[in-house]
């Protein structure tokens, strides 16, 4: 298996964790959204960039952005539907300030 190429991330989510307002014990098992998954969703869905533009920002191929976004959207949907905590952390990323 090839090593992952470093993804460039502009937005540092710091310590972001989204928890459902559920009875104690529910939502205890969390889902982790990596920094590159967060960045792909931010660029594509929030900023409205095309996959090609997002790929340039993250310095990866367009197909890589597509795969990252597909996984990220699945994780977000799973957290919402199954009432789970969503935590953003980790990933093969380099955080950059502006450009």
Descriptive keywords:
99 residues; alpha/beta; 3 helices
Strand order, sheet with most strands: 2-4-3
- The total beta strand count reads 5
**What's the average pLDDT?**
82
**Gap from first CA to last CA:** 32 Å
Give the amount of beta strand, in percent.
15-25%
Q: Structural class of the secondary elements?
A: alpha/beta
Radius of gyration: 14 Å
Major beta sheet summary: 3 strands, mixed
Helix content: 40-55%
Can you describe this structure?
This protein is of the alpha/beta class and 99 residues long. The protein has three helices and five strands; from the N terminus they run E-E-E-H-H-H-E-E. It has a three-stranded mixed beta sheet with strand order 2-4-3. The chain has a two-stranded parallel ribbon with strand order 1-5. Helix 2 packs across helix 3 (62-81). The longest helix has 20 residues, at 62-81.
Topology readout:
Layout: E1 7-9, E2 16-18, E3 30-33, H1 35-46, H2 51-58, H3 62-81, E4 85-88, E5 93-95
Parallel strand pairs: 1-5, 3-4
Antiparallel strand pairs: 2-4
Helix pairs in contact: 1-3, 2-3
Can you summarize this structure?
This protein has 99 residues and is of the alpha/beta class. It contains three helices and five strands; from the N terminus they run E-E-E-H-H-H-E-E.
């Amino acid at each position: 298996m090839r090593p992952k190429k470093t993804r460039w991330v502009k937005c540092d989510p710091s310590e972001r964790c989204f928890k459902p307002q559920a009875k104690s014990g529910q939502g205890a098992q969390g889902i982790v959204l990596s920094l590159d998954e967060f960045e792909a969703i931010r660029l594509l869905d929030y900023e409205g960039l095309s996959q090609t533009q997002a790929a340039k920002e993250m310095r990866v191929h367009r197909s890589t952005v597509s795969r990252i976004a597909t996984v990220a959207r699945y994780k977000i949907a799973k957290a919402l539907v199954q009432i789970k905590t969503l935590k953003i952390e980790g990933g093969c990323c380099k955080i950059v300030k502006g450009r």
